[in-house]
Amino acid sequence: MACCKGLALIVALCAGAADGDVVLSEVMYDPTGPESHDEYVEVVNTSDREKVDLTGWCVGDGYELDLLRDTGSGMVLDPGQRGLILDSSYFGQSATYDSVGTGQAGRTGQAGRTGQAGRTGALMLTIDDGAFGRGGWSNSSRESVVLCDAHGIAVGSFSYDPAGKPGLSWEKVDLLGGDATDNWSLSVVAGGTPGAANSVSTGIISNGLEILIAPDPFSEEVEIGFQLPSASALVNVWIYDVEGQRVRRLLNGAPTAARVTVQWRGEDDTGQDLPGGMYIVVVEASVDGRVLRSRKVIVRQLKEH
Questions:
Q1: Which of 203, 228, 245 is the last residue in one of the domains?
Q2: 97 contacts: CB under 8 Å, gap ≥ 6
């Protein structure tokens, strides 16, 4: 049963804000698995000290909101913890996300506002309906995702246009940066990052890791430099296209010094020249037991002949 219906009502709810420490983080709208079971919405408690009881909260689209339900672990989202909201039809029909509620996956990556991590493992939740909103998340037309607290006030509202290939989720870039469209991007990881730090998020960019790119845009060759906060590290430098496909491994678990520069001539791993357009540079470094990660968008602008 939906907890409330009607576009006019949802617009009215958007006027206020409460329990603002819980934010929308990720929306899987077109999964590669069963579409009627594997869609999800992820939320994060960005507070470093306050728990939030999600009893009475709703999520849905511009036509219908569905009440969140307990799956056996309660309704309280700890500081820094992620909550993964699944279709009620998921249970007994799919096992794609069964491991998400265990291990270290529940931490925000930026670990709340002051670096204090919450309880490990995502809080698994469901809804009191067989599909999100009126008929599940759209993969063919513009869709709105709305999160309302127990007072009926919208604390998050994100609208997306379907893009990319199946299996890429919409992820929030800056967890504390609001729900404007330019603060969301398609994941660079197939299957999204349910229960884990967003692949595009500034929340997983650690202090001391900076990517410098020149020239940008580039045509024939680009220089990718980065500075690490330690004298040595194991580093990945990977290039993704805008559809989330990893096209080039410039460094793959390579030992490096603190200051490194690598060149990319716009080719893929097979040596084939790639077309012009936007690409995503991802740098991941294992430094002193920590994993630092940063990303930067670059543009290849081919010369006209």
A1: 203
A2: 38, 40, 84, 86, 90, 124, 194, 195
Q: Are 296 and 284 in contact (CB under 8 A)?
A: no
CA distance 200 to 235: 18
Q: Which residues of 273-294 are buried (b: 16+ CB within 10 A; e: fewer)?
A: ebeeeebbbbbbbebeeeebbb
**Residue 8 CB partners (closer than 8 Å, separation 6+):** none
Please tell me the distance from the alpha carbon of residue 137 to that of residue 162, in angstroms, as a whole number.
Answer: 10
22-28 and 40-45 strand pairing: antiparallel
Rounded average pLDDT per 10-residue block, the chain, 305 residues: 41 38 94 87 88 96 93 92 94 89 42 34 92 92 94 91 87 84 85 87 54 90 84 82 84 83 94 91 76 80 74
How many Å apart are CA 198 and CA 192, to the nearest integer? 8
pTM of the model: 0.62
Of 236, 301, 227, nearest to 261 by C-alpha is: 227
- Per DSSP, the three-state class of 302 is coil
296 in the same domain as 256 = yes
Domain boundary among 158, 180, 203: 203
Q: Is the dihedral of CA 203, 29, 163, 146 positive or negative?
A: negative
Structural domain including 277 reads: 210-300
Please report whether residue 42 resides in a domain.
Answer: yes
Report the number of distinct structural domains present in the chain.
2
